[in-house]
Design brief:
The chain is of the alpha+beta class. Helix content is 47%, strand content 14%. The strands form two sheets. The protein has a two-stranded antiparallel sheet with strand order 1-2. A two-stranded antiparallel sheet has the order 3-4. Strand 3 (23-25) and strand 4 form a beta hairpin.
C-alpha cells in the first residue's frame, strides 16, 4: 500500500484501478489492446540490451497485479493472449472481452474502403 503524507501525519492511499487501453482490430485481424508506442519502445530497447520481459518479471515480482495487467495492455497484447496471463483477473478480462466485442461489431458495420 502507498502512503500519502498529510499535515496530520501519513495515511494510506487506496490504489485506483488503472485505466484500460482501447481495444483495436490489428492488421493481422486480431483484437488487441492499442499499443502505447513509448512503452513498447522502452521494452524493445531494454530487450535489445538483454533486459527482457522475463528479467522485468523477476525484477518487479512484487508489483501489484493491476500494474502487470496494465503493462500487458500497454505493450499491445491480443485479447486472447491477455486471457492466458496468470496475473489477469477474470473481471479485467471480462471488461477487455466486452471492448473486443464492441470493436469487432464496429468493424463489421463499417463500410469497406477499396
Amino acid at each position: 500500500m502507498r502512503y500519502l503524507p498529510t499535515p496530520a501525519g501519513i495515511r494510506p492511499v487506496k490504489r485506483r484501478r488503472p485505466p484500460m487501453q482501447p481495444v483495436v482490430i490489428a492488421q493481422d485481424g486480431r483484437t488487441r489492446f492499442q499499443v502505447n508506442e513509448v512503452v513498447r519502445a522502452l521494452l524493445d530497447e531494454a530487450s535489445a540490451r538483454g533486459f527482457t520481459l522475463n528479467e522485468l518479471t523477476v525484477a518487479c515480482h512484487d508489483a501489484p497485479r493491476s500494474d502487470w495487467e496494465q503493462f500487458a495492455q500497454l505493450i499491445g497484447y491480443s485479447i486472447g493472449g491477455f486471457s492466458e496471463l496468470s496475473y489477469v483477473r477474470n473481471e479485467t478480462y471480462d471488461r477487455a472481452a466486452k471492448r473486443a466485442e464492441a470493436a469487432e461489431s464496429k468493424a463489421r458495420n463499417e463500410p469497406r474502403r477499396e
